[in-house]
Amino acid sequence: MKTMKKISLLLSSLSILLISFPSRGEIIDRIVAVVNSESITLSEIRRESLPAVQEIKNKYSPEKQKDKIKEIESKILDELIKQKLQIQKAKEQGITVSEENVTAAIEEQKKTYSMNDEQFKESLNKENVTLSEYRQKIRDQITIISLINHVVKPKIFFTAKEFTDYYNTNIDFFRVPETINLKEILVRIPEGKSSFDMISLDFEVSEIFKGKENDEGLASLAEKLKRKGISCEFIDMGVFKKEDLSQEFAKTFSMAKGSFSLIKSEGAYHIIEIADKKSESIKPFTEVKDEIEDILYNKKRDKIYQEYLKELEQSAYIEKRNLD
To answer: Does the record's keyword annotation contain Chaperone (predicted)?
Structure first.
């Protein structure tokens, strides 16, 4: 189950998206590259580049389209060469992918995009892709993931110094800003109030707030307002950073926990309680060690993986032909 979860996450990172699987078209085919004993055809390039080419045609003028399309097709050819090399190497090393793993990955994709079986089939038909072709696409990608895990993962290790160095160098990344938890009694100003009514409401709300006893909370103030016939509601506003609040509300950051403030905004009065405050802090190393490990792992994995791809390319027979 853990292995399939990793496969599922990596499938997303390798862009295996059902909705973007390219359609087949009428193409006069020819070989555009040879990778060891296998070939890549022009039809493969055109199928893979179809979504990007359509976007280029919608975005650029006819004069610019040719160069942009050529650039896209060249990049796709390079990617297909890398895929071929990796799948060939995986076969050499006896890496295989079971039908069960392919099925599980497809089911995960359907779940991600909230597709039932019928919707999945309709999507394949719409893109003119057979189920067999789609399963092969998934199989190839899982094969590459398995190869990466087999070849790259054993080369990744860390020292204690790398962990502490990263923590100390990127200390601001682990800084937790000051936060404040605000609760309020909200008194909405009814529309159509006369000037006299507004003066009266302003006076009564202000007087109740000013007459607050030291140990009196929002609930007691709300009761006093209701006894005056003033409609109000209690709201736990939530936890905020200073930059989350408007200038008027941000002033509460200068007040102590347990303090109260009366703020008048457009259309309402707010009797605010500073329910809790947390000072700026830095997450301790022990709390973020796993996070640091993930960051370092990804950096090393990417570096080792790119080096491995270069080794495969240098040791292979690769012949690239003109795409025009």
So the answer is: yes
103, 221: one domain: no
Q: In the numeric block, which tokens belong to residue 187?
A: 């008194």
pLDDT(50) > 90: no
Using DSSP, state whether 23 is helix, strand or coil: coil
> Are residue 98 and residue 70 in the same domain, yes or no?
yes
Residue ranges making up the domain that contains 22: 2-156+293-320
- For residues 285 and 2, what is the distance between their CA atoms, to the nearest angstrom? 27
Q: How many domains does the chain have?
A: 2
Q: What is the pLDDT of residue 28?
A: 64
Same domain, 79 and 46: yes
Q: Is the pTM of this model over 0.85?
A: no
Q: The domain that contains 79 carries what CATH number?
A: 1.10.4030.10
Q: What is the distance, to the nearest Å, from the Cα of residue 242 to the centroid of all Cα atoms in its chain?
A: 25
> For residue 176, what is the enclosing H or E element?
strand 175-176
Answer whether residue 235 is part of any domain: yes
How far is residue 41's CA from residue 60's CA, in Å, rounded to a whole number?
A: 27
Among candidates 42, 37, 45, which has minimal Cα distance to 80?
45
Q: How far apart are the C-alpha atoms of 53 and 70, rounded to whole Å?
A: 9
Question: Is 171 part of a structural domain of the chain?
Answer: no
| Look-up of token digits 């936060």 | 179
The secondary structure of 93-137 as a DSSP string is TT----HHHHHHHHHHHHHHTT--HHHHHHHHHHTT--HHHHHHH
Q: What's the pLDDT score for residue 115?
A: 94
Q: 118-149 pLDDT, tens per residue? A: 999 999 998 888 999 999 999 999 999 999 99
Alpha carbon distance 119, 229 (integer Å): 57
CA distance 118 to 134: 16
